[in-house]
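step=encode ok
step=design start
structure_in=
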């Protein structure tokens, strides 16, 4: 403690800034631990230091009194924009902490001194003396102010964390911030102030908590700040935390402002960018399509971010809670637009299934959305990412008949797809002086494209049309509504050509994610994903969640996969395909960002360059092998001559080296159609020449023939370096900038004027290049649908090549796709293996045969499967369903042989779980899922039921299981795999005439080893017949239940088994010997003895 006191005392004596900043130390929450007090020497040191000084002044010390510029003239006045260049601010790192920022001379591209923005001498908030006393009391005594003391202080002060009170004296910057907050409610504003971005008020509190940066009171607002070069990192963190973030930028530069008539006014600022989870990747701060080529789903570049709008029919909800639902899902980064309208039950299983297909990052719900739907949306976990952001919209906006249709028709009747150049997010035009607003304005579109998309939108179902209108309103402030004009058109979520997968099927079969870990690894998608591009990975996810049901389409995919597998990409043109795909950027994402106008030159030119090279890479030489129709069509689309010609034309005026470096000033070659850029380049060259023309006069004054300009970092590129022995020759009107031991650096008046002219010319050139960049994007937008068609073809080729890679594994076979039959489906698999477990277990996995349907062997349409716990029943039925799904998406399957007639849907009911958030018990969940299956299954469906009826009493459970099995097997006549532990179910199936023909009995084989309770070995092999016991006590032994509990359970099981045997005999006797009362009495006495 003595050493600490000795170290602390000189720090306090030599740290006047600590005293001056005691206010932010207090407000920032610096306090000693409860009950902890400094030692007496430390108390005396702190008290002597703090008590001997007056409270810190409310006005910061003038900058020119605190710093001198390294040998510069002490009388020189350093310029500093007080609001734009705070002296103390959070550290430049991601963490918290306070750093003294290096003070720099104001540059031409920074804020000019604005007299209106000088700090006010009167501060709102607690009086400085009050804060000083509070800080001293906490630091010395360890005691914070009591609630009563704080309440008393609050009466004479105002808070600095919220909106300034009415009548408060605001600086010009604070007035700008107040106006912006009023214009954009609910948006977290990040305001550009010089070389930093700042948060104000409640936004500063939020940013401080999420970003772990320091916040402090500054005049009337609580303030936090981040460095400009880390903006993209911090905005992404805020967006992922669920914030709606707006970027407020300075819309005029220092050089142009100095040359205008408003040089004494504060910089103009406007919100130019707006980001949420669903729109981040489409904006300027999103990841470039070139950053991570080949990303897979689950990684930032491969996963989709959907904006989903859900609309319900008004007053259509009946007593059962069912109603009509419409939805639209928009992926702004890739241009996907999906829609659906459907009838849903109170469980909202159909809506849940569609939300699993398109996992939303954001959900728009009208204000009149029903409670069951709201509960479901509140339970969305966002998959592998954070929970979905839910935003409510006004239901009355499109409640009137035809309102949504008129709004959509008006949108597609416009000439433009969003804000054009010269408009910010408020819809205002740029000011004079050539100022360039940095916003992400969408591009114009051709009228014929609008008409085609307008017709497609007008054909949407009514509720989907309302959802589209709400989504359109939501995207307009982001300038991303142009994605709805995309040439790819609208795609229906579920069609008659696709296999329907229920939400339970997706979850319980681990189709998209591993239900145990919540990650993609271990899922069917993970097994199939051998894609080489990010856009191919997204397409494969769609294939996996939407398998085909048309036999011809499935066969076409299997033909392509087989040819890719057999060729092994050794012959042209398939030989170039793997390497070409690995080298491609994310074409889908890059083209969509070009559509929005948010792409960077390097990204856009890389995408166009890749499209330009496709034809040469995929060309089919003469005499090359014959390709199957699907491969030939895809290769022709990807390497078409039209795509190559359009890409060449687009890249004609571009300097690709400058584009790769994102150099917009040198992006366009001279004389290639951009006269404005050429003229500004001429002006810049003249300004540079004028600057060099100043050198002869300077050389003559100093008598130095070889004198030239020197460039010093953070000072200037055009300094006159005068040796100290020649300083006497320097005229008095030369401005001294800095000095070192051997020389002094100056700016002559003529050089200063030439530098200002040069800076102004540079700003004008930058504005002209930005305008030319937008004009060029508009010019290439005509061919974006053509480019997108080529990207779609490459995505499908990538998926097919990935499936061929999987098909090359040992033990995979091509399934035989049978024509659809009016009698229903058929499924026959020899040596079927579970796809994911086969990878993990290898040769240790025990395969089994599956035979269901009206085949030549007269196979029944249902299998009742019994057997011990952990015997492999669930694995068997999962394997059959997964192989069927793989076959219908066009993949080879893990089996010796497989054939099936395509199913129209796969339904599963497995496991036991409640949903407390939705108010559903385990048994209600179980029966709700069974109800959906019974109402939706057809003869062409595959149904899997695992232990139905176990959530209630045995009598009720057996009755429900038997009735459900009978309905599916004899009425619906769908293919059914029915797992049960109730012995009454297989007994009824063997006894009843109607079930005996339609149902086959099977059991998982075991090897009994004897003992009490009996021990068994699981063989995991299917054999005919019903199981004689479930061997639950064997699983209890494996779970290490106490021996006493096992013994007691074994005795009770033996007693119950004897009773059951006698009751069965009684039943048989009553049926056989109805007239023999003596035999019945004998059985009754035996039952009474056991009881």
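sequence_out=
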């Amino acid at each position: 403690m003595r050493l600490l006191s000795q170290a602390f005392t000189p720090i306090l004596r030599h740290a006047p800034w600590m005293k001056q900043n005691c206010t932010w130390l207090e407000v920032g929450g610096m306090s000693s631990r409860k009950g902890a007090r400094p030692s007496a020497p430390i108390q005396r040191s702190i008290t002597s230091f703090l008590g001997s000084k007056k409270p810190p002044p409310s006005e910061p010390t003038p900058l020119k009194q605190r710093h001198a510029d390294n040998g510069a003239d002490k009388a020189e006045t350093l310029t500093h924009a007080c609001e734009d260049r705070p002296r103390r601010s959070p550290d430049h790192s991601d963490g918290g902490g306070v750093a003294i920022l290096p003070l720099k001379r104001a540059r031409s591209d920074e804020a000019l001194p604005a007299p209106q923005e000088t700090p006010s001498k009167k501060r709102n908030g607690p009086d400085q003396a009050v804060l000083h006393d509070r800080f001293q009391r906490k630091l010395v005594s360890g005691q914070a102010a009591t609630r009563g003391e704080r309440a008393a202080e609050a009466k004479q002060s105002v808070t600095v964390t919220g909106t300034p009170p009415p009548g408060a004296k605001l600086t010009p910057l604070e007035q700008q911030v107040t106006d912006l907050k009023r214009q954009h409610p609910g948006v977290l504003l990040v305001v550009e102030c010089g070389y930093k971005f700042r948060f104000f008020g409640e936004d500063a509190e939020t940013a401080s908590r999420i970003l772990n940066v320091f916040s402090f009171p500054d005049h009337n607002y609580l303030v936090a700040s981040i460095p400009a070069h880390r903006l993209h990192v911090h905005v992404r963190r805020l967006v992922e935390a669920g914030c709606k973030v707006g970027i407020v930028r300075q819309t005029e530069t220092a050089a142009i402002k100095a040359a205008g008539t408003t040089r004494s006014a504060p910089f103009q600022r406007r919100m130019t960018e707006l980001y949420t989870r669903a729109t981040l990747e489409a904006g300027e701060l999103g990841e470039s399509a070139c950053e991570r080529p080949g990303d897979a789903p689950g990684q930032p570049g491969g996963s989709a971010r959907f904006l989903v709008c859900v609309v319900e029919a008004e007053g259509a909800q009946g007593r059962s809670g069912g109603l009509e639902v419409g939805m639209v899902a928009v992926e702004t980064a890739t241009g996907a637009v999906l829609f659906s309208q459907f009838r849903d039950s109170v469980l909202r299983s159909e809506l849940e299934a569609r939300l699993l297909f398109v996992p939303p990052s954001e959900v728009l719900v009208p204000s009149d959305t029903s409670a069951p739907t709201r509960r479901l949306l509140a339970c969305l976990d966002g998959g592998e990412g954070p929970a979905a952001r839910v935003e409510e919209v006004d239901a009355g906006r499109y409640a009137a008949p035809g309102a949504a249709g008129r709004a959509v028709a008006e949108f597609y009747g416009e000439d433009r797809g969003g804000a054009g150049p010269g408009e910010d997010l408020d819809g205002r035009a740029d000011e004079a002086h050539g100022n360039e607003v940095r916003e992400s304005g969408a591009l114009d579109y051709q009228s014929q494209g609008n008409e085609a998309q307008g017709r497609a939108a007008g054909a949407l179902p009514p509720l989907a049309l309302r959802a589209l209108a709400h989504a359109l309103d939501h995207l307009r402030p982001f300038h991303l509504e142009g994605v709805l004009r995309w040439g790819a058109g609208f795609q229906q979520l579920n069609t008659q050509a696709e296999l329907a997968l229920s939400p339970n099927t997706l979850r319980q079969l681990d189709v998209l994610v591993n239900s145990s870990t919540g990650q993609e690894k271990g899922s069917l998608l993970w097994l199939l994903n051998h894609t080489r591009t990010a856009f191919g990975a997204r397409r494969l996810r769609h294939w996996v969640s939407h398998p085909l049901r048309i036999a011809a389409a499935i066969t076409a995919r299997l033909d392509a996969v087989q040819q890719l597998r057999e060729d092994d990409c050794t012959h042209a043109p398939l030989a170039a395909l793997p390497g070409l795909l690995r080298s491609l950027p994310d074409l889908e994402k890059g083209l969509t960002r070009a559509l929005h106008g948010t792409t960077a030159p390097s990204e856009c030119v890389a995408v166009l360059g890749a499209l330009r090279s496709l034809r040469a890479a995929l060309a089919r030489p003469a005499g090359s092998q014959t390709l199957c129709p699907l491969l030939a069509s895809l290769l022709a689309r990807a390497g078409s001559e039209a795509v190559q010609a359009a890409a060449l034309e687009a890249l004609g005026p571009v300097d690709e080296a400058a584009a790769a470096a994102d150099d917009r000033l040198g992006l366009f070659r001279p004389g290639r159609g951009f006269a404005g850029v050429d003229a500004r380049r001429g002006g810049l060259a003249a300004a540079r020449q004028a600057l060099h023309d100043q050198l002869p006069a300077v050389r003559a004054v100093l008598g130095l023939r070889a004198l030239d300009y020197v460039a010093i970092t953070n000072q200037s590129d055009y300094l006159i370096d005068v040796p100290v022995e020649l300083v006497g020759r320097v005229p008095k009107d030369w401005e001294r900038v800095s000095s070192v031991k051997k020389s002094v650096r100056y700016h002559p008046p003529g050089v200063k004027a030439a530098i200002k002219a040069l800076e102004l010319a540079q700003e004008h050139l930058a504005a002209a290049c930005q305008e030319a960049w937008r004009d060029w994007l508009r010019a290439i937008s005509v061919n974006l649908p053509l480019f997108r068609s080529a990207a779609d073809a490459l995505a499908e080729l990538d998926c097919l090549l990935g499936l061929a890679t999987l098909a090359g594994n040992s033990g995979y076979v091509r399934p035989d796709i049978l024509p659809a039959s009016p009698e229903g489906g058929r499924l026959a698999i020899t040596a079927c293996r579970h796809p994911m477990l086969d990878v993990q277990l290898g040769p240790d996995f025990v395969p089994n045969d599956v035979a269901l349907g009206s085949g030549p062997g007269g196979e029944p349409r249902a299998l009742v499967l019994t057997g011990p716990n952990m015997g492999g029943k669930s694995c068997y039925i999962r394997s059959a369903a997964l192989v069927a799904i793989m076959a219908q998406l066009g993949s080879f399957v893990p089996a010796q042989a497989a054939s099936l007639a395509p199913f129209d849907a796969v339904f599963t009911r497995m496991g036991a779980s409640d949903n407390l958030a939705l108010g559903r018990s385990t048994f209600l969940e179980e029966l709700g899922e069974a109800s959906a299956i019974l109402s939706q299954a057809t003869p062409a469906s595959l149904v899997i039921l695992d232990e139905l009826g176990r959530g209630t009493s045995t009598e009720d459970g057996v009755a429900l299981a038997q009735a459900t099995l009978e309905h599916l097997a004899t009425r619906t006549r769908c293919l059914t795999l029915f797992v049960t532990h109730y012995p009454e179910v297989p007994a009824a199936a063997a006894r009843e005439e109607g079930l005996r023909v339609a149902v086959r009995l099977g059991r998982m084989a075991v090897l009994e080893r004897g003992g009490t309770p009996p021990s068994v070995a699981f063989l995991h092999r299917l054999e005919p017949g019903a199981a004689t016991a479930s061997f639950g006590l064997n699983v209890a032994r494996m779970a290490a239940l106490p021996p006493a509990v096992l013994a007691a359970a074994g005795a009770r099981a033996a007693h119950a088994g004897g009773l059951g045997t006698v009751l069965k005999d009684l039943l048989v006797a009553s049926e056989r010997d109805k007239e023999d009362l003596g035999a019945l009495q004998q059985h009754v006495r035996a039952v009474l003895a056991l009881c």
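step=design ok
step=annotate ok -> The two ends are 80 Å apart (CA to CA).
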